[in-house]
Amino acid sequence: xxxxxTLTSGASGPLAGLRIVEFAGIGPGPFACMMLADMGAEVxxxxxxxxxxxxxxxxxxxxxxxxxxxxxxxxxxxxxDLLEHADALVEGFRxxxxxxxxxxxxxxxxxxxxLVYGRMTGWGQDGPLAQAAxxxxxxxxxxxxxxxxxxxxxxxxxxxxxxxxxGGALYLVVGVLAALLEAKKSGKGQVVDAAMCDGAASLMSxxxxxxxxxxxxxxxxxxxxxxxxxxxxxxxxxxxxxxxIGSIEPQFYQLLRQLAGLSDAVFDAQMxxxxxxxxxxxxxxxxxxxxxxxxxxxxxxxxxCFAPVLTIAEAPEHPHMAARKAFVKRHGTTQPAPAPRFSRxxxxxxxxxxxxxxxxxxxxxxxxxxxx
Length: 372
Prior knowledge:
Blueprint: E1 19-23, H1 28-38, E2 42-47, E3 63-67, H2 73-83, E4 88-91, H3 97-101, H4 105-111, E5 116-121, H5 136-141, H6 161-186, E6 190-195, H7 196-203, H8 205-212, E7 232-236, E8 242-246, H9 250-260, H10 276-287, H11 292-299, E9 306-309, H12 319-323, E10 327-330, E11 333-336, E12 353-354, H13 357-369
Parallel strand pairs: 1-2, 1-4, 2-3, 3-12, 4-5, 5-6
Antiparallel strand pairs: 7-8, 8-9, 10-11
């Protein structure tokens, strides 16, 4: 794992030159802005005075941090001056909070008509639940996602990856960048309403398609991608660790049978759903005969579609992840490296730094006044 080299001047990445004002929050908003900063955007985070944020965390990468009291009329005027020269805004408050501060879309777009106004919430800007509190587990509950994940007995939360980060942060990034592209053509900004429940529902598109054609049932562990099929799942090894297989295609399944010694004719019934429980138990018995390392020696790198199930501590040391430098050391801790990768304008991690809003306004105003 390579140590990260902090940039000392300038930004690297395809978004270099883009200016984004972030209103400090937690979870998907900061993660989205981390991605934008890693890709070169100049992200200014407005946080409350005395906020004790961990500036060494991955989510804090690449920011210019301004401590400012948004309850002050003078501060609001300064923020509007800064937003006049910004390309995008990102906020994650409950609906109505920004309007009450005097920083709602109408006020901001009147000051800067080309600005893209990114709004990150769980339930969205409208609807019966818009003002209710919630977390990832609640937002994915109403989409069908949570009900589909876990063992037959009960749903299991998939960390907070599906709502906060998959359906939230990533859709916010896509929405903001799409609106910025459109603004370059039209000269007009717009509001991006990124709701985690909307994004998580969108992530379920393939499974709604499967259900429509009768290839998906509502019973967990009865479908070919939810652990029901013996050829797509997680198995425990003799050492107590786990491996994963995804031998869906016939040729991959045949290789699985060959390398695992599954000569019994009962394994011919790959796609017969009623046979899956018994075949899953037989395959579980086979995988328990060797350690994870022994199975890796037999199957890893083959077309079985195989991988060891690694912990957070183990993943950075895996040969493939290490070769791709998928993790970096920063301030003595391990963090995921920026993703995705760009061939000509590579992303990079920059350290956060304190900034002064008056100085930023002068700097951005001066840049806008200079010929481009």
